[in-house]
TrEMBL record:
GO biological process: peptidoglycan metabolic process
Gene3D superfamilies: 1.10.530.10, Bacterial muramidases
GO terms for cellular component: membrane; periplasmic space
Stored CDD domains: Slt70-like
UniProt KW keywords: Signal
Superkingdom as given in the UniProt entry: Bacteria
Pfam families associated with the record: SLT (PF01464)
Source species of the chain: Candidatus Raskinella chloraquaticus
Residue ranges occupied by any Transglycosylase SLT domain in the UniProt entry: 499-604
Protein name as annotated: Transglycosylase SLT domain-containing protein
GO MF term set: hydrolase activity, hydrolyzing O-glycosyl compounds; peptidoglycan lytic transglycosylase activity
InterPro entries associated with the record: Lysozyme-like_dom_sf, Lytic_TGlycosylase_superhlx_U, Transglyc_AS, Transglycosylase_SLT_dom_1
Family statement drawn from the similarity comment of this UniProt entry: Belongs to the virb1 family. Belongs to the transglycosylase Slt family.
Length: 664
């Protein structure tokens, strides 16, 4: 199978990665670096350190130390981690390393003063950190602060048996019954029925009855109803009971009855224990109510959320506003919800979505001026689904991508002085470039200079790592930084002869970007593999259909995987008469489900069906998001491939002979 790949640089061909400044070392040094990192990842920190001492490059030595600390091997002291973090700001995995240091404190023999000093520059973030500091404060007579820390750990952090033993032995009586109950509830919200039930056994009485009922609901046990009925009446207003009863009723396909229990729940996030899980349950029940023709009740469920996390607030307020606008025809109420959503939104996708729907609400209220203003704001984010829809509303026909700022000599020098950049180059020169992912991803999240981020993305491309180039660009663009070109690389999928129906090149790239972020070796928890995340059974079936020899060992090969994936996608598009919405939904959730959604919500190809509402009605959050992301990607990739005409409106209603930009 012939394929066309991007030209490889001389550095990629020879294996030597050029870098400004000092040379990257002899082949012997690079071999030693490989050996040291291998020993570090195997948990042999002593051998790794011994090899690192023989390295002449200080960044190489730091790199080995980073791998040792990141490995989590036994015997690494908290002070060793702390010294590394202090001496090397900006290195990736800082939160992970900090958590390892706090865990190490639990088994070390440090004085109370040393522990208090350790946390002088930052509050503890983990359960072990909080309880160790609590014990130190208790030794210094600060009992109230100690108890507050333990309470926070018990209610907010994962608590291992070792941490629990430490607290109960060193600070008997500090953990109250209320603390244990809060921890039990948190475990049940995380669907850890075993550990939650164990705490219930300790608590006894009505708490044990409630614990048994919650465990049964989580396990979908046949006696769940009987156990819920057996919970004493005085616990029937307990938020944990209300949640369990609502969840059980929802699973029995009784969303109306489930909603009544949600309506009596408090909105105070502290009483809910896990407001995020409460929102998930509310979202599912609200959508089921909408499916059953109960939009007013669906609205009440969505609007009654007690979320405190920004992403949950955004989702909850969207649902309440969308239901109010589209199904209750109450634009004023909808606008209030979308305004809250707008206030919470900070990333491009959410900002565009909030302003688009505020514009729709303003239109319904007859305020065309305000509607246009909100469309204008949404349209500034032209790489997003709702930004593109806003552009179409404003009559804009061309998608303009933002170019990364030019890096002058000063910026280049600053970039090349970064130890983490040299670490990337060292890993590449040693043949370990795949291990550089955290350096690229963390920079995409943290760096504030767009020109330097552009240099980093370019470096990823020079190293032949499209997936890392995408990681940098995607993270940066999500923070509203101008890296469109790097966030949408065009060489992530090899061009090769089609096995089945021809598929628009922008569609192949847009879908693969969402599926695998162009990582040819990635495997999902569901067993999907490679660039286009093919399930082996689907890949084998497609291979047989198109007369290609099926070789499961070859499924991670970029050409083989993309040819089979493109053929499978082409069949999806053909089976839905050209509809991209349905084809993308089917690729993610299966053709059977896509047909079920047509039966339930109407056919988005039909002019009488609102395609945007149809997408928002998709019951699976993952698939709903997937369809939007692939649709927006297609528009961007057309522009990247020289076809900047915006066709989002026609793509939404695509059916048979609708014209599209063909960029095979």
């Amino acid at each position: 199978m012939a394929a066309t790949y991007p030209a490889r640089s001389q550095a990629q061909v020879t294996g030597s990665i050029p870098s400004p400044g000092a040379a990257l070392g002899s082949s012997g040094d690079l071999s030693l670096l490989r050996e040291a990192i291998s020993r570090a990842e195997a948990g042999d920190g002593g051998a790794a350190s011994a090899k690192a001492e023989r390295l002449s490059d200080p960044v190489a030595r730091t790199l080995v130390e980073w791998f040792i600390l990141r490995s989590g091997a036994d015997g690494i002291s908290a002070n060793r981690v702390s010294r590394f973090l202090s001496a090397n700001p900006g290195w990736p995995a800082e939160k992970t390393l900090r958590a390892r240091a706090e865990a190490a404190l639990l088994s070390e023999q440090n004085s109370a003063d040393d522990i208090i000093a350790f946390f002088r520059n930052g509050e503890p973030r983990t359960g072990p950190g909080r309880v160790v500091l609590a014990d130190a404060l208790r030794q210094r007579g600060q009992n109230d602060k100690a108890q507050a820390l333990v309470r926070e750990a018990w209610r907010s952090n994962a608590i291992s048996s070792a941490v629990e033993r430490f607290v109960r032995e060193r600070m008997p009586g500090v953990v109250t019954r209320a603390d244990d109950k809060a921890r039990m509830n948190r475990l049940f919200y995380q669907e850890d029925a075993g550990d939650g039930l164990a705490i219930g056994e300790r608590l006894g009485g009505g708490d044990l009855a409630l614990a048994r009922a919650r465990a049964a609901v989580i396990r979908k046990a046949p006696n769940a109803r009987a156990l819920l009925d057996a919970v004493p009446a005085e616990f029937h207003r307990d938020p944990a009971y209300l949640f369990a009863r609502a969840q059980w009723l929802r699973r029995q396909d009784k969303p109306r009855e489930a909603a009544q229990f949600l309506h009596t729940a408090p909105r105070d996030p502290r009483l809910l224990i896990d407001a995020e899980e409460w929102w998930i349950e509310r979202r599912i029940i609200a959508r089921k109510l909408l499916d059953e023709g109960e939009p007013r009740e669906a609205y009440r469920v969505a609007a009654g959320h007690g979320s405190r996390k920004d992403t949950d607030i955004i989702e909850a307020e969207f649902h309440a506003g969308w239901i109010a606008l589209r199904y209750l025809k109450d634009a004023a109420t909808a606008d209030r919800h979308f305004a809250i959503m707008q206030k919470e939104a900070s990333r491009k996708i959410s900002v565009a979505r909030a302003h688009y729907w505020r514009a729709r609400a303003k239109e319904a209220l007859g305020d065309e001026g305000a509607a246009r203003q909100h469309y204008e704001v949404a349209a500034r984010h032209g790489t997003t689904f709702y930004g593109q829809l806003a552009m179409a509303k404003l009559g804009r026909q061309t998608l303009q991508l933002v170019n990364t700022p030019h890096a002058d000599e000063g910026k280049r020098a600053q970039f090349n002085r970064r130890p983490t950049v040299r670490a990337i180059r060292l890993l590449a020169a040693a043949g370990l470039v795949d291990k550089a992912r955290p350096f690229f991803v963390d920079a995409g999240d943290d760096w504030t200079d767009a020109a330097e981020l552009g240099l980093l993305a370019r470096l990823a491309g020079e190293l032949g790592q499209v997936k890392f180039q995408l990681a940098v660009g995607k993270q940066a663009v999500g923070r509203n930084m101008p890296l469109d070109t790097y966030a949408y690389p065009t060489n992530g999928v090899p061009q090769s002869p089609a096995l089945g129906p021809k598929v628009e090149r922008a569609v192949v790239l847009g879908l693969s970007r969402q599926e695998s972020t162009f990582d040819a070796k990635i495997r999902s928890s569901a067993g999907a593999i490679g660039l286009m995340q093919m399930l082996p059974a689907s890949a084998a079936q497609t291979a047989r259909k198109y007369g290609v020899k099926w070789n499961p060992q070859q499924i991670t090969d970029p050409v083989y995987n993309s040819q089979l994936g493109t053929a499978y996608l082409g069949d999806d598009i053909a089976s839905f008469n050209g509809s991209y919405i349905l084809a993308f939904a089917a690729y993610n959730a299966g053709r059977r489900r896509a047909n079920e959604w047509i039966a339930k919500y109407g056919d988005p190809r039909d002019a009488s069906v609102d395609a945007i509402d149809w997408i928002e009605r998709i019951p699976f959050t993952e698939t709903r998001n997937y369809v939007m992301r692939v649709m927006e990607n297609v528009q961007v990739y057309r522009a990247r491939l020289g076809q900047p005409r915006l066709l989002i409106d026609s793509d939404l209603k695509r059916n048979g002979g609708v014209a599209t930009a063909q960029t095979e």
